Amino acid sequence: MLVYDQPINQTNAVAGQAPQRTSAAFSVLDLTRLLWQRKVAIAAAGLICACAAVMVGKSLTPRYSATAQLYVDPRELQLVERELTPRAQDVSGLAMVVESQARLITSNNVLLQVIQDTKLDKDPEFGGDAKSLMSSLLGLFGLDSRSAEDARLSQMAALEALGRHINVKKTDRTFIVDIDVWSIDPAKAAMLANAISDAYLAESKKSQASAARRATTDLSSRLKELHERLRNAENTLAIYKAQNNFVGTQDSLISDQQLSASNQRLSAARALTLDAQAKLDQIEASRRASTDAGAIPEALQSPTIANLRAQYAEARKRYAELTGELGPRHPALRQVEKQVDDLRRTVNEEIERFAQSAKNDLTRARDYEASLNKALEAQKRQSVQLSQASVRLRELERDVEASRDVYQSFLKRSRETEEQETLNTSSARIIGEATVPQRRIFPPAMKLLAMLGFMLGALAASGWIVAADRLSAPDAAEPDAAQPRPRASVSPDMKISIEPASPPVPQPSQPHLAAIEKPLIARLQESDVVRTLSGILTIGGIPDATRMGWPTLRAGFPLMTFLNAMREMREIVTRRSPANAMPVMAAIGAGDGADRSITALNIALAAARDGARVLMIDADHATHALSNRLNGLGKSEPSRLGWLSIGSKTSRAIKTANGISILPVIKGSDAKASDAIRKAIAQARSAGGYDLVILDGPAMPWSATDRKLLDSADGLVAILPVNLDINDAMEDIITALGGTEHKLIGVVISELNPAAIDRNRDKQYA
């Protein structure tokens, strides 16, 4: 960042004089030359360090690493329907199971088993003491000379050492677990890796059997209590049934069966009563009517009535025959007539017996129905009493059923877990046994150690040489103490303020310089631009702003610092512009107008390179350096340039191949030119054909019309050439701005060589 009370470099204030580098400066070329001069010493230091690294590598104890691979599948074998632990179904759950098994490999149980199997507590590499002669003799007879406390301490030391020798890692997105074990003995490393794998599988099987055994023990301890609870519940239920006369089959009680049967018999009795009543009503109706009483169904079905009716018909037939042959008082005719009357009376008597029988049937049916109804009422009262008692009965039955289900479930599960003690459901297995390693893992190869030692030695020697050279160089000359003058300085809260060198004396004519917000600072360096010959302006009839003979931005570098700073300045001026209005940026500065115009052109090219449509207006009525570059083109080729009238009939904007339209200076008085420029800005905003307007100028000092023109700008960018005093130039600009210094959004330090801006056409340039 720029600090205004310190100059950028030690340059003379005289324009055109080349800057002088102080003795404290240091370039890459000087560094390369210095190191080349001391190349023998650097090479010697590198060789010495390489030899030292090889010697150190030879003195280090080698380490060998062996790897055993396990396949740990969390989806265990399902040998029974219900397992002790639920299976993980999702991917995250499976991964957590595998990671847990990987941590189990390094658990104390597994490692202690390995120590016990391989006797690592007696190995000096793992903290064991060297065997004495007495210990060796006792070991031949299976005796241990160490006490129990010493043996436990040896095991703990071996456990800690073995933990440092093991590295268990899980391959991503797989169920493969690698067990890496290192040791100073390659055969021991392979043996330990395989022993850890076997101990893990044994521990896994042991833990499963132990879990099943604990579950069986817990379930068995509960079976007796559950059986006693079930028996008590069944006894209570049986006693309650006997006390309340709950007798019946498994499906229903006897009282319920009797009530159902009585209800059915009552319905049948009522049907019989209705049938007897209907039969009697029919007989009575036939008797009251004048129709034949023997037409009822019972009379028609009776053989006696049928025989009497046949005799009656035969007697009527004979009576009819005799009536035609004999007189009414003939004895034979009277005898037949009496016979007919006797037969009719006999039939009526028979039908009367049917009516009496129907009455008797109706009376019997009514009596039977009444008795059934009485019995049914008694059974209903008994059923209500049993229903009230059955509430408690159902509670007891539910208690018995629940106790029975729990007991049966515990009994079945106890038998299953008892069988699972002898089953190994783990699917973990060894897929790759560890083999004896042939190469060590530490220290590295001697060639690599030699290379590293040589590089470190050479770097250390180079640093020592550069430091010694810098310390022996003379100190930089102190800056000349000039006459005290006001300075622009940066306060800790990022504010630019004007501070006098001597105690401030109030002057009536001196304006008050208030603190303003520090603007953005950008540097336009020689490495950012490329230079071309002037006169090569058009290609195919379209002017090119990068071929005006001025230094312009290099193509193909979208991330250079200058372009990023210009993007930030455009964002600021866009925020300060009115809503939905095209922003206007003015480039101002002290010194030669060509320096400002060159920087303003590069600001426009930076915006056009980001896709913005830029209108650049030459507002410098004094020097109009930009218009001077365009005058020759406007006079020689007026018909092929595609002029666009903006603001004035005499000055027209020139469209270039770079997305920039350039409006030359408008001839006339300052007031007329300023009014024309403001009208051009208003016309461009209303037409909407541009994204940004850049004003080149006006040049300092500013008149009243120039200040009006600056008031129409949304942001100001100060151009400070490097050949001028930065502090004085910045102070002059802030003083000239007066109350509009808040519009200052950025400062561009132009570090372009002023002597190389104007080139000759008869010279060769790269």
Structure, explained:
The protein has helices at 28-37, 39-59, 91-105, 108-118, 133-140, 148-165, 186-243, 254-288, 297-301, 303-325, 331-420, 446-472, 561-576, 593-609, 625-636, 670-687, 704-711, 726-737, and strands spanning 63-71, 166-170, 176-183, 429-432, 440-442, 487-490, 495-499, 516-517, 520-524, 529-530, 538-539, 542-543, 552-553, 584-589, 614-618, 644-645, 652-655, 660-663, 692-696, 715-721, 744-750. It starts with 27 loop residues before the first helix and ends in a 16-residue tail after the last strand. The strands form five sheets. A nine-stranded mixed beta sheet has the order 9-21-20-14-19-15-18-17-16, with helices on both faces. Strands 1, 2, 3, 4 and 5 form a five-stranded antiparallel beta sheet that branches. The protein contains 18 helices and 21 strands. The relative contact order is 0.10. Helix content is 53%, strand content 12%. The chain is an alpha/beta fold and 766 residues long.
Structural class estimated from helices and strands: alpha/beta
Give the termini separation.
32 Å
- Note the total helix count: 18
Main pleated sheet: 9 strands, mixed
- Largest sheet, order of strands side by side? 9-21-20-14-19-15-18-17-16
Helix percentage: 40-55%
Q: Whole-number average pLDDT?
A: 77
Give the strand content. 5-15%
Radius of gyration: 61 Å
User: Which runs of at least 5 residues are low in confidence (pLDDT < 50)?
Assistant: 1-25, 474-515, 633-650, 759-766
Global morphology: elongated
List how many beta strands DSSP finds: 21
